[in-house]
């Protein structure tokens, strides 16, 4: 796990958009949907935790619960976005499974 924090701003400037585009084959429309979905998750995290510093690796489970329960547009892109978030935060599948 790393200390990277994802915000709506660094979705575009911090390389997350490129991860989805080149690593997961997202086209422009899906990238825009993904940005909206991830921004909603970040807003939920910030509201719930009372911070304004975005979403970190420790918030991934909270974000996934929110998206799976409350976000209608999530299902189509969920596997790719979740995988890209884990990659960005440095969370290996084994770490996730052992938690």
Query: Measured on Cα atoms, how large is the radius of gyration?
Result: 12 Å
Helix/strand/pairing category: mainly alpha
Major sheet characteristics: none
Report the principal-axis shape: globular
| Share of helical residues | 55-70%
Pattern of helices and strands: HHHHHH
Stretches where pLDDT is under 50 for at least 5 consecutive residues are none
Secondary structure tally: strands = 0
- The percentage of residues in β strands lies in under 5%
Q: What is the terminal-to-terminal distance?
A: 13 Å
The number of distinct helices, counting runs of at least 4 residues, comes to 6
Mean pLDDT reading: 87
Describe this protein's structure.
With 99 residues, the protein is an all-alpha fold. 67% of the residues lie in helices and 0% in strands. It has 6 helices and no strands. The protein has helices at residues 8-13, 16-24, 28-49, 60-70, 78-89, 93-98. Helix 2 crosses helix 5 and helix 3 packs across helix 4 (60-70). The longest helix has 22 residues, at 28-49. The two termini are 13 Å apart. The model has no long low-confidence stretch (mean pLDDT 87).
């Amino acid at each position: 796990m790393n200390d990277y924090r994802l915000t709506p701003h660094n979705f575009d400037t911090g390389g997350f958009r490129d991860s989805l585009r080149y690593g997961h084959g997202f086209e422009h429309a899906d990238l825009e949907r993904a940005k909206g979905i991830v921004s909603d998750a970040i807003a939920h995290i910030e509201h719930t935790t009372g911070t304004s510093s975005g979403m970190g690796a420790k918030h991934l489970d909270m974000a996934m619960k929110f998206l799976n329960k409350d976000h209608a547009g999530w299902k189509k892109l969920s596997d790719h976005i979740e995988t890209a978030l884990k990659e960005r935060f440095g969370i290996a599948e084994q770490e996730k499974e052992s938690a």
